[in-house]
TrEMBL record:
Alphabetical list of Pfam families matching this protein: LpxR
Record bears the keyword Signal: yes
Keywords: Signal
Protein name in the entry: Lipid A deacylase LpxR family protein
InterPro entries given in the database record: LpxR (IPR018707), Put_OMP_sf (IPR037107)
Endpoints of the signal sequence: 1-23
Length: 325
């Protein structure tokens, strides 16, 4: 009798175990996220310049079928989708000085033009054993129609009590933008649970950016593998019951061939654009990420050398909050 019972429970465990494991690995199907980029988060700085701010919202989701994108890369493990919108504002340095005078400086006094950017994007993340590929299409508008000036004016007047910058009337003219962006990451040591090294490559082609960037980095702490981690906006694939808390550092060498927020229109001259572009720049990120079950929080400090020949180093902060359901 004991032997028969043992055989029965062994059979039952063998039968139910795959379902139990599957249920344990189930992930949420949807995620909403907001991001806010601003140099106001750099406490030892008190002026806007270069990449002044960015506000974005996006929605990630899984689906069996979506626009036929699920048919690409037959050898993938899984994939998911992300759609979103973002508005960004760019300003020259030194604007806090001339804004206190009665003289309205012209574009000849700016080391980079004022630029407003509003865009929407759709990307698909394809997950493989030790890597992932994000393929993105971005479309939007650069110029006054982006409403980046109005958003900054409202924030300065109503929230931060900063000055209103007169120079926005000299911002780059309206143009329609289309860009293709590719990100590929490879996990160098997937079996280490507390220290992880990765390499990443990025390629951007279009009339917003033309650039390529190799990146190397590491993570230290408690984390999911990169294909499922919050720091790469892949946490929609992480288990429902999960906790991540870790530090991440990365350094990137960026080859810049074209930047519309500085150089204006790729196909014709803009009188307020700046032609001089530093074709090689360095970028570093220091990041802290926390994720538990449905909620995620990310805080990032981004440092870069000047993309312009005459520009100084630039630092800004990024705060991101995501909710899975």
């Amino acid at each position: 009798m004991l032997r028969k019972n043992l055989l029965f429970f062994t059979f039952l465990f063998t039968l139910l175990c795959p379902f139990y494991i599957t249920s344990q690995e189930n992930h949420f199907k949807n995620q909403i996220r907001s991001t806010n980029d601003n140099d106001i988060y750099v406490f030892y700085r008190d002026t806007d310049r270069y990449y002044s701010y960015g506000v974005g919202f996006d929605y990630s989701f899984t689906a069996d079928k979506f626009l036929g994108l699920q048919n690409i890369f037959k050898n993938k493990i899984t994939n998911f989708y992300n759609i979103g919108v973002k508005i960004e504002g760019y300003t020259p340095s030194g604007i806090d000085e001339f804004v206190k005078t009665d003289i309205v400086e012209g574009p000849e006094n700016f080391d980079r033009p004022f630029a407003g950017l509003l865009y929407a994007f759709l990307n698909t993340t394809y997950v493989f054993d030790r890597s992932f590929l994000k393929a993105e299409v971005l479309t939007g508008i650069l110029g006054p129609s982006s409403q980046a000036r109005n958003l900054q004016d409202w924030f300065h007047e109503s929230i931060s009590n900063d000055p209103i910058y007169d120079g926005w009337q000299f911002q780059l003219k309206d143009q329609f933008l289309v860009n293709m962006n590719l990100d590929y990451l490879y996990d160098f040591n997937p079996n280490n649970n507390w220290l992880n090294f990765f390499g990443k490559g990025n390629l951007k082609l279009g009339n917003l950016y033309i650039q390529a960037a190799p990146t190397a980095g590491f993570r230290l702490g408690k984390f999911e593998k990169p294909t499922h981690s919050v720091s790469f906006n892949n946490s929609i694939l992480s288990p429902k019951k999960t906790t991540e808390i870790f530090f991440q550092f990365s350094i990137e060498s960026r080859i810049n061939l074209f930047n519309a927020t500085i150089q204006g229109n790729l196909f014709k001259d803009d009188p307020v654009s700046v032609s001089d572009l530093n074709n090689l720049s360095w970028h570093m990120n220091n990041e802290i990420h926390f994720s538990r079950n449905r909620l995620s929080l990310s805080v990032i400090y981004s440092w870069s050398t000047g993309v312009l020949d005459t520009a100084q180093n630039h630092v800004f902060g990024i705060v991101g909050v995501a909710y899975r359901f």
